Amino acid sequence: MSFLEEFQANLESLPVILQKKYALLRDLDKSLQEIQRQNEQRCEQEIEDIRRGVRSGNITPDTSVIRFSDEALDEQKHSIRIADEKVSLAVQAYDLVDTHIQQLDQYLKKFDEELRRERENAAISGVPASAPEGNTKSGRGNEGGRGGRKKRQPSVVVPTEAQPAPVNPTGMELDLPVDPNEPTYCFCNQVSYGEMVACDNPDCKIEWFHFGCVGLKEQPKGKWYCSNCTATKNRRKGK
Fold this sequence. Notes:
By secondary structure, this protein is an all-alpha fold. It has three helices and two strands; from the N terminus they run H-H-E-E-H. The chain has helices at 3-56, 70-125, 227-238; strands spanning 196-198, 208-210. Helix 1 (3-56) runs antiparallel to helix 2. It is flat and about 100 Å long. Residues 18-45 form a coiled coil.
């Protein structure tokens, strides 16, 4: 079995594996939301009970001895454990996709070397080398470069879920590894993630922007220009 055939065979199982991980992530998220809802109600009720006890004189207003019940604390610890498991699943999904990308990069590198050897042998023997069917490109090269307009929104780097990512309930930063070869966009000079909008100026140097970085919540209607291009446009009008 050639390297390409082996890569294709491994790639066929990738969608099924990712689908299972995403399904588990959704189940964990539902459980986490339910536990958080119960814990919020319990804590609110306990706070109200403490206030009534202090007003009636049954509870000493000493913050050092006032605490939530063990049930409330256990629910909070359980929420943290579920959040940690979600992060672990997201990292596993990322590593799985990253492994396949690295395998593809290896194949393309090997393919380029074979083409180079063919051209060298053809130059020695005088026989024209067979041209490849299109330009080969690394699986994680610069997408389209900065010189031309991109036709589609850049793909998101980290596949936490196929659906929009849920709000991080614990406030924990999902510090997932990012490939240094991934192209960067926007004023923040970060990789693609979430919803993005393209500047309609064909000469825009940045081209793509994250919604949050430009203060958008939904796709703008009509043409949209980034602040840099808008300022340049206004300066030209003022001349």
